[in-house]
TrEMBL record, chain A:
The keyword Transmembrane applies. The chain crosses the membrane at residues 12-38, 68-94, 101-126, 138-157, 249-271. It is found in: Cell membrane. PANTHER family: ABC TRANSPORTER PERMEASE PROTEIN, INNER MEMBRANE ABC TRANSPORTER PERMEASE PROTEIN YCJO. Pfam families: BPD_transp_1. GO terms for cellular component: plasma membrane. Belongs to the binding-protein-dependent transport system permease family. Coiled coil: none annotated. It comes from the Bacteria. Keywords: Cell membrane, Membrane, Transmembrane, Transmembrane helix, Transport. The lineage of its organism: Bacteria, Bacillati, Actinomycetota, Actinomycetes, Kitasatosporales. It comes from Streptomyces seoulensis. InterPro entries: ABC_transporter_permease (IPR051393), MetI-like (IPR000515), MetI-like_sf (IPR035906). This is Sugar ABC transporter permease.
From TrEMBL, chain B:
Residues 1-20 form the signal peptide. The lineage of its organism: Bacteria, Bacillati, Actinomycetota, Actinomycetes, Kitasatosporales. Keywords: Signal. This is Extracellular solute-binding protein. The keyword Cell wall biogenesis/degradation does not apply. InterPro entries: Bact_solute-bd_prot1 (IPR050490), SBP (IPR006059). It comes from Streptomyces seoulensis. Pfam families: SBP_bac_1.
Length: 286, 435
């Protein structure tokens, strides 16, 4: 049968629609933005060549460094918060307890709301006169920062919980049974079986979180507008401000290009470091 | 459960239909020009219904037939109007007539040669030339040339106060800075925040600096900046105003949490209406906001007065800051200039002014005072009209007057000053660096 030899190896032309789609909607705009970063353009008329001026400004005016520091801090703290919560919730949700299914469904609700709705909701809750949190939360640097971490977590922990739940359910029951026979306690089983077995799950979740944090935007726009001052102006917000408030599309394109390079490098690095790319099985030696 | 899902289904299909309709509208928008139909962009809020009526009235008028053209109004929803206008103006589907804020908001269009200079048209046309308050026409001008026709209500910034609280504590609306500080001291003693301030939006903070600089140094200080000289920020009045702001903040005049309070979500207006704060410096739209959310408070307890004088300051208490109004401007590439200008003329008519008044606005037309009795609140409308008509100077809101690329960093510096992340000296130095 001639079919069998080629099975699982379709002709490369099958990929053509996807490649064209990706080229048209992802690569071409990216190249365009990169080109724009070497021009001055306020959105009207023709872009004027500006050489390296935007890149020079980006790397020397201090905005990038400040913004990068905020972005990194927000990413690290958010990941720590979300991973801890999602891991514990996910492992719990994978168990056989009563009411678990109902509660899991309730936990998942925040993820179904749009970021804008969630942000507006918390904006109202944080009002010092009429909200539930007294004091000037969004007016202080630490308050605004923690509010962003919390609101982001509130929205995205359910999603990562789902991933961890799926991961935890894949762990073979025999491992736990063997450990129980050896007299391992609950904590010991969690540390020596659950955690190592969730290695690949954690890598997936972490890459999604980091890339998500780098493109975190609506919440900042609505909750803090980068404030107080510029203390929560993360890179995507800086890009929005340069492009759609100051109409400095050249500078905004330079930020966007930087963001693409940074996000790609970071996710490749993460995949490498976590050994996710090697796809080493968690069942090795079993 | 069944009703829920049916409603959900209906909602989903409506959304789908609306977006499909939106797409179709966009599709036909590009080609709809050949029949002489002009496109007008307007900020799509509640007030746009007045413009919608004006357009349909114009389309069936003799003027439209004479000039062989008609208009199609496109309501652009949301606060992203400036960005959408900018994108459209850079594309082949640019509107022929468009809503704007005058001043810096149209500077880029002038530089790109996309906005019609209306100075001579206005001077040579009695309807337009005598139809509007001169201070309002001037306030939207750029370098002495006029590019816009007033088309909405006036928006001066006014000091609002809670009459009940004032009566309880024996206070009077402040006419001088000392009276204002005296009021503050008494209010704080009574545990009331003197001023509501929606600091999360930043522009309400800007209003304080606009008035303080005017009262301390007069309108010339900002005029210099507006006309393109950033060194004007070095005027001693700006530093003095910034120091005064710091004193007010440190003194607790705005309470402790002001930078978490917003105007746009109703936080600051509610603080005034519920007696948590006694005064509120805000644009004239505060009246309609209160009327919508706390009608009893607006009718019985809301008071208003001009911003007080500053001791030894050069500014007249009659000077006003704010947005004089919004303007219609014309694209130089319009296919039918005659129709566009004929439509602009209708904005000077009594019919149009009456419709604005019925909507709670106070038009910038010269004869509007005779019509103000029809306003939902004649007393407030007359106060506002007199305030603008008698103002020796009307300073356009700074963030609308300067270039958009200077406005964003300027607002950031204002925010830093208010939250204590910058000193008055650093504030002035940073403003001087703006393009």
């Amino acid at each position: 049968m001639s079919h069998q030899r080629g099975a699982g190896r379709p002709h490369p032309s099958w990929a053509l629609p996807a490649v064209l789609f990706f080229g048209f909607f992802a690569l071409a705009p990216m190249a365009l933005a990169f080109g724009l970063s070497f021009t001055t353009w306020n959105g009207l008329g023709e872009p004027r060549p500006a050489g390296l001026a935007n890149w020079h400004a980006l790397l020397t005016d201090g905005r990038l460094a400040r913004s990068l520091a905020v972005t990194v801090a927000l990413t690290v703290v958010s990941c720590a918060f979300q991973t801890t919560a999602a891991l514990l919730l996910g492992v719990w949700a994978a168990g056989p307890q009563r009411n678990r299914a109902v509660l899991s469904a309730v936990f998942f609700v925040p993820f179904l709301l749009s970021s804008t709705a969630v942000s507006l909701l918390f904006y109202a809750l944080l009002d010092p006169n009429f909200g539930i949190v007294p004091g000037d939360t969004l007016g202080t640097t630490s308050g605004a920062f923690l509010a962003l971490v919390f609101v982001g977590g509130w929205q995205f922990i359910p999603f990562h919980t789902l991933i961890y739940q799926g991961g935890a359910r894949q762990i073979p029951e025999v491992l736990y049974q063997a450990a129980a026979i050896d007299g391992a306690g609950r904590l010991r089983r969690f540390r020596s079986i659950t955690l190592p077995q969730l290695r690949n799950t954690a890598a997936t979740s972490l890459v999604l979180m980091v890339v998500g944090s780098l493109t975190y935007f609506e919440t900042v726009l609505i909750l803090t507008q980068g404030g107080p001052g510029t203390d929560t102006a993360i890179l995507p917000y800086l890009m929005y401000e340069a492009g759609f408030k100051s109409y400095d599309f050249g500078y905004a394109s330079a930020i966007a290009s930087f963001l693409v390079v940074a996000a790609t490098t970071l996710s490749l690095l993460l995949v490498r470091v976590t050994g996710f790319g090697a796809m080493r099985s968690t069942r090795e030696g079993m | 459960m069944e009703t829920y899902s049916r409603r959900w289904f209906l909602g989903a299909s409506t959304t789908a239909l609306v977006s499909a309709a939106g797409l179709t509208a966009c599709g036909s928008g590009g080609s709809g020009g050949s029949d002489g139909t002009l496109t007008a962009f307007v900020y799509g809020d509640d007030a746009a219904k007045v413009q919608a009526k004006a357009v349909s009235r114009f389309n069936s008028s003799a003027a439209a037939r004479e000039t062989k053209g008609s208009l199609r109004l496109e309501k652009v929803p949301g606060a992203e109007y400036p960005a959408k206008l900018r994108t459209a103006m850079g594309s082949p589907n640019a509107p022929d007539v468009f809503f704007n804020w005058g001043g810096g908001s149209i500077k880029a269009y002038r530089e790109a040669g996309q906005i019609l200079d209306l100075t001579d048209v206005i001077a040579g046309d009695p309807v337009l030339g005598d139809g509007f308050l001169p201070s309002v026409l001037d306030a939207g001008a750029l370098g002495g040339r006029k590019y816009g026709i007033p088309m909405r209500g006036m928006q001066p910034v006014i000091l609002f106060y809670n009459k009940t609280l004032f009566a309880e504590h024996g206070l009077k609306p402040p006419a001088t800075w000392d009276q204002l500080l005296d009021n503050n001291a008494k209010l704080k003693k009574a545990g009331i925040t003197p001023f509501a301030l929606g600091g999360a939006d930043i522009w309400p903070e800007l209003m304080w600096l606009e008035y303080l600089v005017d009262r301390i140094g007069g309108p010339k200080v900002f005029d210099r900046v507006k006309n393109g000289d950033p060194a004007g920020w070095g005027d001693p009045a700006v530093l003095k105003a910034a120091r005064t702001v710091r004193e007010l903040v440190d003194d607790g005049a705005f309470g402790k949490g002001f930078s978490s309070v917003a105007y746009t979500n109703g936080g600051a207006p509610a603080a005034l209406a519920k007696g948590k704060a006694a005064m509120h410096l805000m644009g004239s739209w505060e009246y309609s906001t209160q009327l919508g959310k706390f009608p009893d408070f607006a009718r019985k307890q809301l008071g208003w007065c001009p911003f007080p004088t500053f001791d030894g300051g050069a500014g007249d208490i009659r000077n006003v800051v704010g947005n004089p109004t919004n303007y219609w401007s014309v694209n130089t590439r319009t296919r039918n200039k005659d129709t566009a200008l004929a439509f602009l003329r209708t904005c000077a008519s009594d019919t149009y002014a009456r419709e604005l008044i019925a909507n709670g606005d106070v038009p910038a037309t010269a004869g509007a005072d005779k019509l103000l009795d029809a306003s939902p609140s004649p007393e407030f409308a007359r106060f506002q009209y007199r305030m603008v008509r008698e103002a020796p100077a009307f300073t356009l809101s700074w963030d609308q007057a300067v270039d958009p690329d200077a406005a964003t960093p300027m607002l950031t510096e204002v925010n830093k000053l208010f939250v204590g992340k910058s000193s008055p000296e650093r504030f002035v130095a940073a403003l001087k660096e703006l393009k």
